[in-house]
Amino acid sequence: MHVRVAVTAWVLLALAVPAAVSAQQRPFVTEDPEPVGGGVMLIEAGFDYVQKQQFPVSGLTGNLVRGPLLGLSFGLSDIAELQVDGLSFSRHRVTAREPGPLSSHLDFSGDTTSSIADLVIATKVRLIDEGAAAPGFGLHLATKLPNASNEAGLGTDAMDFYASLLVGKTMDTVRVVGNVGFGILGDPTRGDRQNDVMTYGVSIARAMTHTTEVVAELAGRLNTRTENVPVGTESSQIARLGARATWGAMRLDGAVLLGHRPPHPDLGFTAGFTWAFRAFNAP
Questions:
Q1: What number of other Cβ atoms are within 10 A of residue 135's Cβ?
Q2: Taking the alpha carbons of 266, 274, 146, 29 in that order, is the dihedral positive or negative?
């Protein structure tokens, strides 16, 4: 009897965990409306290397390395998920300096600076299940905490809030995901002012074999102000082109990053992995 129960549990886990992996987005930033699943914990990690990354608030430009880009997702139920992202460290090799509103706060010597990254706490809820002909819909709410150091030139010392409507549909071997929403970005120079921006993202993943995919994404934010735009809240856009390979509950990914608008970098790459497993019993 105990053996039968154990085997049944492992079969259910084997069926649930690959679905949880397929619902997640590395190397994308566009959120899939499908949560990881009740009781499932998902861990993702990796690193970025980008060239000519600009930090307008501090006036620094240079080559940026970020890692381990640790993110945790907890399946609170079949339709809800809690996310903790930004558990990472940034190292920036400065190649150019310009005057910025917080340049006077810089406190490092030489041409290299480093800091922990901003922590992001988010929740995702599936609103409508995906059907045979209709897409699935979800809601994503996130708060960015000002953990990155402005003395290192890598932070804004401002808290931001984001809300996005998520949509996703699988058609044969292709999955298309779209996000549209808004961000409330704090002004790094004034505590009584903010900038409301539009956020967007579109990602496409096409299965080439039963374990590999090619992926592409375009995502960014659009500033809606015509004047007096707070520094650090400007429009930005970046594209990702890459591939993913999945084996059971583990997925590896890699992508080239192409910046379209400052302050995003001109060129870079990212690589990482995702692992999902049954961690607890969800209600």
A1: 18
A2: positive
- Chain centroid, CA 78 distance in Å: 21
Distance separating alpha carbons of residues 182 and 259, to the nearest angstrom: 21
Mean pLDDT of successive 10-residue stretches along the chain, which has 283 residues:
42 46 76 96 97 92 96 96 97 94 89 96 98 96 95 92 98 97 93 92 97 97 89 92 95 94 82 95 80
Answer yes or no: pTM beyond 0.85: yes
Q: Name the architecture of domain 2-278.
A: Beta Barrel (2.40)
Q: What is the DSSP string of the chain?
A: -HHHHHHHHHHHHHHHHHHHHHT--TT--SPPSS---TTEEEEEEEEEEEEEEEETTTTEEEEEEEEEEEEEEEE-SSSEEEEEEEEEEEEEEEEEE---TTGGG----TTEEEEEPPPEEEEEEEEE---SSS-EEEEEEEEE---S-TTTTS-----EEEEEEEEEEEETTEEEEEEEEEEEEEPTT-TT-EEEEEEEEEEEEEESSSSEEEEEEEEEEEE--SS-PPTT---EEEEEEEEEEEETTEEEEEEEEEEEETTS-SEEEEEEEEEEEE-S---
Q: Give phi and psi for 10, each to the nearest 5.
A: -70, -35
